[in-house]
Design brief:
This protein is an all-alpha fold. The chain folds into 2 domains: 218 residues, no CATH class; 77 residues, no CATH class. The protein has a two-stranded antiparallel sheet with strand order 1-2. Helix 6 packs across helix 7 and helix 11 runs antiparallel to helix 12. The radius of gyration is 23 Å and the shape is globular.
């Protein structure tokens, strides 16, 4: 459910809310339906207790804040006269370094605060998040095991080891599960979930990581094709954002934050079967065709738009 919210509903409602657009005439004290749905969806996302879902949401919020801060940086630079031609490059560099250094410091502070909140909300899984003595005594995998996260890591390692066996074209779609028993880290056999899959369940294990699975099953070739498709989707969203239409601008923002969220979500889900990010990026391309190609008979030239951007 967290994946569905992060890859489809929240980005659309967030993009429309940022551009102050609505598909409905309904208003509650000047609050649009999309604003209401966005708030409700964030509450549901919080209740899902999906840690990767929370991280994906924080990732694209951080991306939006980063963009906003870059706009502020340019405005402050102009006010200080640093944007004028002929000004000293050293002053510009010092200003930029100070600005982004301060931003990173504040952002890390927010992350530490959020981590502290999580240790209180979910002490069973997150109670030892900042227990560095555990890391020293048990190592990274032992610490991750206390966070109920080591299972994911050992599957990632096993999947990546399978990729190293067939690096060019991969082992074939769906075949990584057959290789994981050969590539599983010895630490994995101490984990109840891994033992349960091997001893009790009848299905194959999987890599628990979209990026590792693509590498293991399709190799460098397939991984490059998939990343290239995401890159074209990203640039198409950027073209939409520069459109004169606010609807296209909203969908441009939507497309970008979906891809940012997918980068994070890909470290937990490893299937192409869930349709949400395919649907959202399909809408981004549809908006590009509608607003950037007014002549229905004109063929889209996304390559030219990407080059121009």
């Amino acid at each position: 459910m967290a994946h569905q919210l992060n890859m489809f509903y929240i980005p659309i409602w967030l993009g429309l809310s940022i551009k102050k657009l609505s598909m409905h005439k309904f208003r509650l004290f000047s609050i649009s339906m999309e604003n209401i749905l966005l708030v409700v969806s964030l509450f549901v996302l919080f209740l899902s207790k999906s840690r990767i879902g929370w991280l994906a949401f924080l990732a694209y919020i951080a991306y939006l804040v980063l963009r906003l801060m870059d706009i502020r940086r340019l405005k402050w630079s102009r006010r200080l006269g640093l944007a004028e031609a002929g000004r000293g490059q050293l002053k510009k560099n010092l200003f930029n370094a100070g600005f982004w250094g301060g931003f990173i410091f504040v952002f890390l502070g927010v992350l530490v605060f959020a981590g502290g909140v999580l240790t209180k909300i979910d002490p069973r899984r997150m109670g030892t998040l900042f227990n560095f003595q555990t890391i020293q005594q048990l190592g990274i995998l032992g610490w991750a095991s206390r966070l109920v996260f080591a299972e994911r890591i050992v599957y990632w390692i096993a999947g990546f080891s399978a990729f190293l066996l067939y690096p060019i074209f991969g082992a074939g779609l769906g075949n990584v599960g057959y290789l994981i028993p050969q590539t599983m880290n010895s630490f994995g056999y101490k984990l109840p979930e891994v033992l349960r899959i091997y001893l009790n369940n009848t299905f194959l294990p999987n890599a628990k990581n979209l990026w590792v699975r693509i590498l293991a099953e399709t190799g460098i070739v397939g991984f490059s094709v998939f990343v290239a498709w995401l890159w074209v989707g990203w640039k198409t969203a950027r073209v939409n954002e520069r459109s004169a239409s606010r609807m296209a601008q909203a969908m441009g923002i939507t497309g970008q934050i979906v891809i940012v969220g997918l980068v994070v979500e890909g470290f937990s889900l490893d299937t192409f079967a869930l349709p949400y990010f395919w649907m959202t990026l399909g809408l981004v391309v549809a908006v590009y065709r509608i607003f950037e190609l007014p002549d229905p008979g004109k063929q889209p030239d996304i390559a030219a738009q990407v080059t121009a951007s």
